[in-house]
C-alpha cells in the first residue's frame, strides 16, 4: 500500500470501498474468527452449560453464543435439595465459571461486530484524531480480551477437570467445546491486537503524511540561490576620476 496521504494503515478518506479487499484483510479475517469463537463459547454455555428449565429457549449466536450457550444451557444442573428450581454450573458447580465464559462470549460477540463495521468505514474517517482513537481502542480492547480469554480458558479447564460427570452425560460436549474455543479466542484476539499495534506504529510515523507540496528536487540543507539579474555578468564599477591624479596637479 502506498503510504502517501494515508493514516494508520488506511487509504486517504474518500477512497472507494473495495469489498473484496475488505474481506481479504487479515484484520477482518481474524475479527470474523473472534466473532465465531465468541458465538460458540456463548452458545455452548448458555444452551448446555446449565440444565435448561422447561420452556427455556436454546441456541444463541455462533462463537460467543456457542461458548455462552453451552455453559448456560448445559453447564448447570439442578441444585440438590433445591425447591425453587435453581440451577448450578456443570463446571464443578462453580456458577462464576459459567458467568465468566458467558459474559466474555457475549461481549466479545458484540465487540467483534462493532469492529467489523469500524473496519469497513475506517478509510472514510477523514479525521486523523478519530482514526487514532479507533486504533487505540482496538489495541486496548483486543489485548484485554486476549488476556481475559486466557484466564477464562484456565478457569474453565481447571473447574472441568475437578467436575463430576453430569447425569446421563448431559452437556459434556458443550462444556468441552466452550473450553476449546476459549483457547482459540486467545489466539484470534491476540492477532487482532498485533495488527492494531502495527497500525498504531504506522500512524505515529508522521513522515508518512507528506502533503506533496514540497519540491523533491530541492536538496535538504541547501542555501538560497543567488538572485539572478538581467545578465549573469559581473557588475563593473566606474573608477573615481580623481583617484589617479598626481598631487601637484590638484
What would you say this structure looks like, in words?
The structure is a single chain. The chain has 250 residues and is mainly α. The chain has one domain. Helices cover 54% and strands 2% of the residues. It has six helices and two strands; from the N terminus they run H-H-H-E-E-H-H-H. The protein has helices at 19-23, 26-48, 63-74, 95-121, 128-161, 172-204; strands at 76-78, 87-89. A two-stranded antiparallel ribbon has the order 1-2. Helix 2 runs parallel beside helix 3 (63-74), helix 2 (26-48) runs antiparallel to helix 4 and helix 3 (63-74) runs antiparallel to helix 6. The termini are far apart. 36% of the residues are buried. Mean pLDDT is 73; it is low at 1-5, 52-61 and 208-218.
**What percent of residues are in strands?**
under 5%
Which H/E pattern describes the elements?
A: HHHEEHHH
Number of helices: 6
- Tell me the Rg in angstroms: 34 Å
Mean pLDDT comes to: 73
Based on helices, strands and strand pairing, what is the structural class? mainly alpha
Give the biggest beta sheet: 2 strands, antiparallel
Number of domains: 1
Q: Give the strand order of the largest sheet, numbering strands 1, 2, ... along the chain.
A: 1-2
Distance between the termini: 83 Å
Total beta strand runs:
2
Global shape: elongated
Name the helicity range: 40-55%
- List low-confidence stretches: 1-5, 52-61, 208-218
Keywords:
mainly alpha; two-stranded antiparallel sheet; 6 helices; elongated
Indicate the topology:
Blueprint: H1 19-23, H2 26-48, H3 63-74, E1 76-78, E2 87-89, H4 95-121, H5 128-161, H6 172-204
Antiparallel strand pairs: 1-2
Helix pairs in contact: 2-3, 2-4, 2-6, 3-4, 3-6, 4-5, 5-6
Amino acid at each position: 500500500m502506498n503510504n502517501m496521504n494515508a493514516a494508520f494503515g488506511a487509504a486517504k478518506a474518500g477512497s472507494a470501498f473495495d469489498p473484496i479487499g475488505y474481506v481479504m484483510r487479515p484484520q477482518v479475517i481474524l475479527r470474523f474468527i473472534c466473532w465465531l469463537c465468541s458465538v460458540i463459547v456463548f452458545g455452548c454455555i448458555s444452551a448446555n452449560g446449565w440444565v435448561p428449565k422447561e420452556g427455556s429457549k436454546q441456541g444463541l449466536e455462533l462463537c460467543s453464543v456457542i461458548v455462552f450457550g453451552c455453559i448456560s444451557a448445559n453447564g448447570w444442573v439442578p441444585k440438590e435439595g433445591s425447591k425453587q428450581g435453581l440451577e448450578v454450573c456443570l463446571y464443578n458447580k462453580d456458577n462464576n465459571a459459567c458467568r465468566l465464559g458467558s459474559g466474555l462470549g457475549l461481549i466479545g460477540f458484540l465487540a467483534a461486530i462493532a469492529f467489523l463495521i469500524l473496519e469497513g468505514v475506517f478509510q472514510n474517517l477523514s479525521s486523523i484524531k478519530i482514526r487514532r482513537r479507533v486504533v487505540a481502542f482496538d489495541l486496548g480492547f483486543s489485548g484485554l480480551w486476549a488476556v481475559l480469554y486466557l484466564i477464562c480458558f484456565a478457569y474453565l479447564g481447571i473447574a472441568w477437570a475437578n467436575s463430576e460427570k453430569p447425569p446421563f452425560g448431559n452437556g459434556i460436549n458443550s462444556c468441552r467445546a466452550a473450553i476449546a474455543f476459549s483457547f482459540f479466542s486467545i489466539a484470534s484476539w491476540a492477532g487482532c491486537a498485533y495488527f492494531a499495534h502495527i497500525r498504531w506504529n504506522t500512524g505515529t510515523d508522521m513522515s508518512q503524511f507528506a502533503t506533496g507540496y514540497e519540491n523533491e528536487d530541492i536538496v535538504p540543507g541547501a542555501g538560497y540561490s543567488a538572485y539572478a539579474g538581467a545578465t549573469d555578468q559581473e557588475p563593473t564599477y566606474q573608477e573615481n576620476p580623481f583617484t589617479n591624479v598626481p598631487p601637484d596637479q590638484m
